[in-house]
Amino acid sequence: MMLQMRWGTILPQHCVLLVTCLLISLEAVPIDIDKTKVQGEPHVEGAKIETPDTGLYYDEYLKQVIDVLETDKHFREKLQTADIEEIKSGKLSKELDLVSHHVRTRLDELKRQEVARLRMLIKAKMDSFQDTGIDHQALLKQFEHLNHQNPDTFESKDLDMLIKAATSDLENYDKTRHDEFKKYEMMKEHERREYLKTLNEEKRREEESKYEEMKKKHGDHPKVNHPGSKDQLKEVWEESDGLDPNDFNPKTFFKLHDVNNDGFLDEQELEALFTKELEKVYDPKNEEDDMVEMEEERLRMREHVMNEIDVNKDRLVTLHEFLKATEKKEFLEPDSWETLDQQQVFTEEELKEFETHILQQENELLKKAEDLQQQKEELQKQHDQLQAQKQELQQVVQQMEQRKLQQGSPLSGPAGELKFQPPGEHQVENAQNHLAGDQPLPPGNIPVQEAAAGSDHVQIHP
Q1: Would the N or C end of the chain have less CB density within 10 A of its end CB?
Q2: Least confident window among 6-15, 52-61, 277-286
Q3: What are phi and psi for residue 418, nearest 5 degrees?
């Protein structure tokens, strides 16, 4: 017995990411096939498989928890014997109390790091709105993949919440993709119609004719086999695997395309089977072929096969489920497959509603732009007023300095320092100038000699 499946290899589309992340023990089943005929490199035992991104905002935390739990022998043994309902119900989460101290310590550390990361995201978001007084504890309630009331230790409740959050979030993964694709298609049609409105009658007819011609050219492709049918799988067997179509064997086919040898065909492995069919319809070199539509077509094919084959709805196809499906009439005589170009993605009513929503958004953006323009003009007006006041103050200061200079008492010296003159010193200077130039003295000033002579006749009375 060997451990062949890791939690971290589960795909982002799995609505039961942790539900199906079981540590399955499988015995290798021999394949009677000439491996020299099979294209591609052989599987390397023990090779690390790149873990895909689930698309969840707590993706890294989820992967790290899975990796740590996988190291505990007791927990791994419980996973091997647990069924899906036990995991989903939270019963398995209680086994966390029995894991080793080292594992619990590591899980505690991961949780503290995740809480710190979420708080940092909250702060960054709030800072962008210039908010203050953030209640981080209250805002953490919006994150349902951990117990925010206990930010320091990883308990069984945390594992239970992580399982339920991942299950719930990924259940809506495909629906979200479909909704986004519909919006994409409606936006394309909206922009096309808006462009036509800008053209004159002649140009409009030319564009309409070109559009219809491209649609016709896109629809002119070879027959697309029904996904999951014998014809479709035999084509993969022959063209991708390089094997004789007369030797087609469902069991061997399953083993060949179970890329990671975990005993399942997961969603990614299933989608890879449809590449040949999609290449019949879509070519990135062709203007009329939209690669976004190709991925939507791939998603539809995978969902259809899962609905037909996946009996227990765990989003994984076992060998037993696969072989049972090959016994059905639909496998041998399937209905024709309608591609996207043969279906109506949206109705005219949905398009009108979408355009109304776009118009509302445009009006809101215009209103915000007008408000911002008004704020800009107001700020410019305030700036101009401040500049005018600054110039007035500068003029007043200059006038005061000129007035002081004219009075012979400059406010400052050559180096800009304030200049003061002791009382009486200015009078003596003026008197000396009077003796030298016989100029009249200002009122209150007397010649030096007269002042000295007068002092000889001063009598001091006791």
Answers
A1: C
A2: 6-15
A3: -70, 140
